[in-house]
Amino acid sequence: MGPRVKAYGILVLLLALGGAAYYWFQSGGALGATQAGSKAAGKAEKTEKAAETAIPVELAKATAGSISSYLSSTSNLRARRDVEITARVDGIVQQMPVEEGDFVREGQTLCTLDDTDLQINLRLTKRQLSQARVQLESAAIEQQKSAAQIENTKAELQRKETAFREQLVSEQEVAQLRYQLDDQTHDQRVAASHVKELGHRVQELEAQIEQGELEISRTHVTAPFSGYLTERLVELGQTVRNQDRLFRLAAFSPLYADVHFSEQETDMIRPGQKAMVMLGAEARDRAQGRVARISPVVDDSTGTVKVTIELDPGGREFRPGAFVRVDIETDTRQNTVLIPKRAIVEEDGESYIFTADGETAHRRKVGLGYQNENEVEVREGVTAGEAIVVAGQGNLKEGSKIRAVEG
Prior knowledge:
The chain is of the alpha+beta class. It has four helices and 20 strands. It has helices at about 5-50, 115-165, 170-220, 265; strands spanning about 55-60, 65-85, 90-95, 105, 110-115, 220, 225-230, 240, 245-260, 275-280, 285-295, 305-310, 325-340, 345, 350-355, 360-365, 365-370, 375-380, 385-390, 400-405.
């Protein structure tokens, strides 16, 4: 083997040894780095797990304030007045200047009926009345003449009777005057009867004229009070008869709600007490009302007492027939502890809440009092200013770790 071959062999060996050393160094360094990375990741994971064990909750503070107690019931609103307007004479609808849903004033014309026949009958009756009055006047004059003739005959008879006693005239002349007086007296009674009959006729015709004028006035159907036309039951040109239904009219202000309570509950209610009236099951609108009156009797079929609530809708959506919920305020407590109603946890007929002490939750039994739609009074177990869990308490138990989040 030549020197050149030996040199090449030594060179190859050195290269092989250098590659092995480089590979060992690289493998050892990567393993160290991997172990260091694993340690750091482990620490982060432990921190994350520690954070995950704290339950997220929403907190609120107990406050001091006032709250009222209420008696609640439901009802349907009714109008103060709700009437059907009917025709009072027969006729054909000539004019109808209003429509269903319109607001009308008291005395405003709702529709007009054709009064042609009534006007003709009225003019005829007035003509008959004029004739009857002339006849009555003539009969009265005749009666007066008859009365004057009787007076004259009586005076003449008296003179004749005196002359007869003095034998200046014959008995026949006296008898003739007596017969004449009887005849005149009969005529006078007939004349008086005729006058009386004509008087009755005049009164009858005057009454017919009043009736005719009244019927003509009734062809103008008017609103008996101010309100809304809730129904129109007649058409233009329609022939209507007496007592046919034409319109339905309702006064919307004020409105009333009749609610019913037991005798014991009614003892807490007085006329004038405040009441909140809420529209619909969702209470989408509300209005202030008051107790207008309390029925003096108990309904023997239900054992309840009717309480009437009065409210002024004040332009809101309240309408007759609408379903409402009524809350009557019976008492108010001042400066009492209040918490959100959603903080309460019910269990086995008891009420509990969770308070927050730093990052720890504590379960606490509470005694409740009055409540409204959003808040409840705590009579014992909480003081004003304490932090209360209002969301997330379903996952809590005594001593649970918590972290507050925004609601």
